[in-house]
């Protein structure tokens, strides 16, 4: 972008923003089944947007300068703690930052030279990211391939004297399964190890599903042995992006998540989060969303998502060649194909205006498609099932994507570090995946098929190169 010689009007800028967004996935309506969460209530989103804008320029860096930040955060965190078994919390920018702080607090409290983190293979990659940044070893534990849950016995076999934290999910994102929190937390406590519940997806959903009649097992800070928990408000709290809370059972552990520095001649530094300066807009948006919906609003949304998820699970299971993975206890659904290639199915659904999220195979779990059911999904359940059925039939006719002979072996043998981004882009274009500017949206089935055939480490390296090429 060339900086304009003179300033542009707001109307001009908004018109260009609209043009730039022409090919974005829609954030409302329920046809995008991941990344966005929609209540179907425009007045709630409007209230959040106005509160976000009101707090946009308030800096959360120094709460003594802006006491509104303290009051709003205490209210938001207090609401989460009240719903999820108490504790002492921090408002963060999202699940990854909440998880980062939980891992930091556990690492610093343990004070070990070679700390490790034990988690199921279904745990969110944010834990791997936190461990990478914080110098903690990750030890993965397989899950049962029928239930997609980890067992306390399997976790116990992996922990040792250097384990600083054990992780369970409520639910795990890939298949929507809730790990046996009570059993794992009790085992961890007996071993003197902290236990974190990743409830980023389910924390602000499962309690409302329980009130709506779902059988939801205990999972929060009221469970003995659970020492911390993460809960995103920009998921089923329906707040604007940038809103999460991490809770600690003990205030001393929360203090371990903080960072302070006085080793310089400038202003004193004390950060509750990874970020320093940050807009209070997301805090304002979260506060307004909670206030706008209230308990009754969330309960009504819980009932709607529960009904939609039930109908979707039954409807998908009735489509020839498709099967739901496990018995999801939340409103996250994953389904695989028997004689249907799911990556081709996803492309066909997208051509019909629906985004279903592809998930690669890993640790014995087959490639599948993921659906996050939100408050707006119920109104479009039949339309979604119709698109899935049509796309499955089209995918059956087309068959799996045509991966050029020898391509996987070629990629496996490549020295990716020796290729510049331009050469990598040309290589991708030669197999039908043109990432270069102006090429448009490629069909992703062949990309996902190639990635699915590669080991995780090489998948990661390829993904890094894709991102580098896209941003240029």
TrEMBL record:
InterPro entries: GrpII_AminoAcid_Decarb (IPR050477), PyrdxlP-dep_de-COase (IPR002129), PyrdxlP-dep_Trfase (IPR015424), PyrdxlP-dep_Trfase_major (IPR015421), PyrdxlP-dep_Trfase_small (IPR015422). GO terms for biological process: carboxylic acid metabolic process. SUPFAM superfamilies: PLP-dependent transferases. The modification N6-(pyridoxal phosphate)lysine is found at residue 235. Transmembrane segments: none annotated. Keywords: Aminotransferase, Lyase, Pyridoxal phosphate, Transferase. One of its GO terms (molecular function) is transaminase activity. The keyword Nucleus does not apply. Its cofactor is pyridoxal 5'-phosphate. Belongs to the group II decarboxylase family. Sphingosine-1-phosphate lyase subfamily. This is Aspartate aminotransferase family protein. It comes from Nonomuraea glycinis. The lineage of its organism: Bacteria, Bacillati, Actinomycetota, Actinomycetes, Streptosporangiales.
């Amino acid at each position: 972008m060339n900086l304009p010689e003179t300033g542009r009007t707001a109307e001009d800028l908004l018109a260009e923003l609209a043009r730039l967004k022409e090919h974005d996935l829609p954030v409302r309506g329920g046809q995008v089944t991941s990344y966005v969460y929609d209540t179907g209530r425009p007045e709630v989103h409007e209230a959040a947007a106005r509160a976000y804008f009101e707090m946009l320029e308030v800096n959360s860096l120094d709460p003594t300068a802006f006491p509104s930040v303290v009051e709003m955060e205490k209210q938001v965190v207090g609401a989460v703690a009240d719903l999820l078994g108490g504790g002492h919390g921090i408002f963060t920018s999202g699940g990854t930052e909440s998880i980062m702080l939980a891992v930091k607090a556990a690492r610093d409290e343990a004070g070990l030279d070679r700390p490790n983190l034990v988690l199921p293979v279904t745990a969110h990659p944010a834990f791997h990211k936190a461990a990478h940044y914080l110098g903690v070893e990750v030890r993965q534990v397989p899950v049962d391939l029928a239930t997609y849950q980890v067992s306390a016995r399997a976790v116990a076999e992996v922990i040792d004297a250097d384990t600083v934290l054990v992780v369970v999910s409520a639910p795990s994102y890939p298949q929507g399964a809730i790990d046996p929190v009570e059993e794992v937390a009790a085992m961890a406590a007996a071993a003197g190890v902290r236990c974190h519940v990743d409830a980023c997806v389910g924390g602000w959903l499962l309690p409302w599903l329980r009130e709506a009649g779902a059988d939801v097992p205990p999972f929060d800070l009221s469970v003995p042995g659970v020492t911390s928990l993460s809960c995103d408000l920009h998921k089923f709290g329906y707040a604007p992006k940038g809103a999460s809370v991490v809770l600690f059972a003990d205030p001393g552990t929360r203090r371990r998540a903080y960072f302070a520095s006085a080793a310089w001649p400038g202003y004193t530094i004390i950060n509750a989060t990874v970020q320093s300066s940050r807009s209070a807009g997301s805090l304002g948006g979260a506060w307004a969303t909670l206030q706008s919906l209230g308990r009754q609003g969330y309960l009504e949304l819980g009932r709607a998502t529960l009904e939609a998820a039930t109908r979707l699970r039954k409807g998908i299971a009735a489509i020839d060649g498709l099967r739901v993975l496990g018995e999801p206890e939340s409103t996250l659904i994953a389904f695989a194909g028997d004689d249907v290639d799911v990556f081709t199915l996803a492309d066909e659904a997208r051509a019909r205006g629906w985004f279903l999220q592809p998930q690669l195979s890993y640790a014995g779990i087959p490639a599948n498609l993921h659906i996050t059911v939100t408050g707006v999904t119920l109104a479009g359940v039949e339309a979604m099932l119709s698109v899935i059925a049509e796309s499955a039939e089209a995918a059956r006719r087309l068959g799996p994507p045509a991966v050029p002979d020898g391509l996987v072996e070629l990629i496996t043998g490549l020295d990716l570090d020796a290729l510049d981004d331009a050469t990598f882009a040309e290589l991708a274009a030669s197999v039908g995946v043109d990432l270069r500017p102006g090429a448009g949206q490629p069909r992703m089935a062949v990309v996902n098929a190639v990635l699915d055939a590669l080991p995780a480490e090489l998948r990661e390296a390829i993904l890094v190169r894709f991102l580098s090429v896209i941003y240029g």
